[in-house]
Design brief:
It contains one helix and twelve strands, in the order βββββββββββαβ. With about 200 residues, the protein is mainly β. The chain has one domain. It has a seven-stranded parallel beta sheet, with no helix packed on it. A three-stranded parallel beta sheet has the order 5-7-9, with no helix packed on it. Strands 1-3 form a two-stranded parallel sheet. This is TIR-NBS-LRR class disease resistance protein. It comes from Rhynchospora pubera.
Length: about 200
């Protein structure tokens, strides 16, 4: 199975609330709408609240940028080594596209380049509170956010990667994010030390 939903099939999932996919070896994306296939209507996933994808080694991207995810609250993507983009193909046009998204968890995604492939409009994302990532060494940038937020987004990741993301961030975006200092073990790959303990 290379995708879960096909654009050229009748889709009646406007009440779908959860997508949970585990160990789907051949899936490359959630929605198949490349080539000559017609696009999904943007509101067809308006009820979707939770997305969890794990151990899908060929997954390249998840949602096209125009799909309306007005109810999405949590997004977890774990151990999908080929993933390059969360929202792809289309530029995000609506600044209030993700009004309820509050938590993102991204683990062991070594090829992930960006959360939004193209972005010309800063996003509101007023409920977004946490971004937790590990092993996303190629992540290039974080989404642009509308300033004057009541609460900063807490970014929890390896120290070296957080420093890189912060350095690439426009000055007007630094106040939107809070880079949390990770526990020492979170960056163990950066400072591996071999120790031998002898007990007598």
């Amino acid at each position: 199975m290379d995708s879960i939903f096909k654009a050229n099939e009748i889709f009646q999932g406007d009440e779908l609330q959860i997508i949970w996919a585990f160990d789907i070896q051949k899936m490359t994306r959630i929605l198949d709408q490349l080539g000559s296939s017609p696009y999904f209507v943007s509101s067809e996933f308006g009820a979707l609240k939770h997305v969890h994808l794990e151990k899908c080694p060929r997954l390249e991207s998840i949602f096209p940028g125009h799909v309306e995810l007005s109810s999405l609250e949590t997004l977890s993507v774990l151990n999908c080594g080929n993933l390059r983009s969360i929202f792809y193909y289309h530029e995000v046009q609506d600044e209030n596209q993700f009004p309820r998204l509050h938590t993102m968890q991204l683990h062991e995604l070594p090829n992930l380049l960006h959360l939004c492939e193209k972005q010309s409009v800063p996003l509101q994302m007023k409920e977004w509170k946490k971004l937790h990532f590990r092993g996303c060494w190629n992540l290039q940038w974080l989404p642009l956010l509308v300033e004057a937020r009541s609460e900063k987004v807490e970014v929890d990741g390896e120290m070296r990667q957080c420093e890189k993301l912060r350095a690439r961030m426009p000055d007007d975006q630094i106040s939107c994010y809070y880079f949390k200092s990770p526990p020492p073990l979170a960056s163990f790959r950066e400072h591996v030390k071999n120790k031998i303990f002898l007990k007598y």
